[in-house]
């Protein structure tokens, strides 16, 4: 496997138009405005592509962390087999869900639709999307007090962002679409909607 140079955060020279796309992503990173959602740029993998940038996220409800994820953008000016382009998004989301939801066989299809709907609603043009949705139920044992079952859903996906009508690639809208997916898996209301409480 080839060893690539350091990722985006450590390089001063980035190829255009990837430099502008990364600037759009970083602008969205600081301006998402979702309550309970914390985003942070983190070191990106260095051996998957010549250039990369990564974002991690956590979703909290009260004092509890209910979801987490990672959003990685890979860029290879020469492209890679299967990408259908020179840039690829690789995303991961994991969230706690109620046991009844985890037991529902339709959860996989619903989880995938959360991703596709988020990309569509944000007008995040893309191609070659693929991934998996996994339902898990874990039991805690040993020194963990109050042993109980923990149900989770995981969405792993990748897709190739496409340039917009102006010919530029806006990675910011892809990041925001992923944020919408993350919040949907965590049970947070859509942007602009206030959850009613009893």
Give an account of the 3D structure.
Helix 1 (18-30) packs parallel to helix 4 (171-185) and helix 3 runs antiparallel to helix 4. The protein has a 6-stranded antiparallel β-sheet with strand order 1-2-3-4-6-5. With 198 residues, the protein is of the alpha+beta class. Helices cover 24% and strands 33% of the residues. It is globular, with a radius of gyration of 18 Å. The protein has one domain (8-185). The chain has helices spanning 18-30, 99-103, 107-121, 171-185; strands spanning 37-42, 51-61, 64-75, 87-96, 126-139, 149-161. A hairpin with a 2-residue loop joins strand 2 and strand 3.
Helix fraction, binned, reads 10-25%
Q: Spell the H/E element sequence.
A: HEEEEHHEEH
- Content-based structural category: alpha+beta
Q: Major sheet, described briefly?
A: 6 strands, antiparallel
**Count of DSSP E strands?**
6
Can you give me a brief rundown of this structure?
The chain is α+β, with helices and mostly antiparallel strands and 198 residues long.
Secondary structure elements and their pairing?
Elements lengths: L17 H13 L6 E6 L8 E11 L2 E12 L11 E10 L2 H5 L3 H15 L4 E14 L9 E13 L9 H15 L13
Helix pairs in contact: 1-4, 3-4
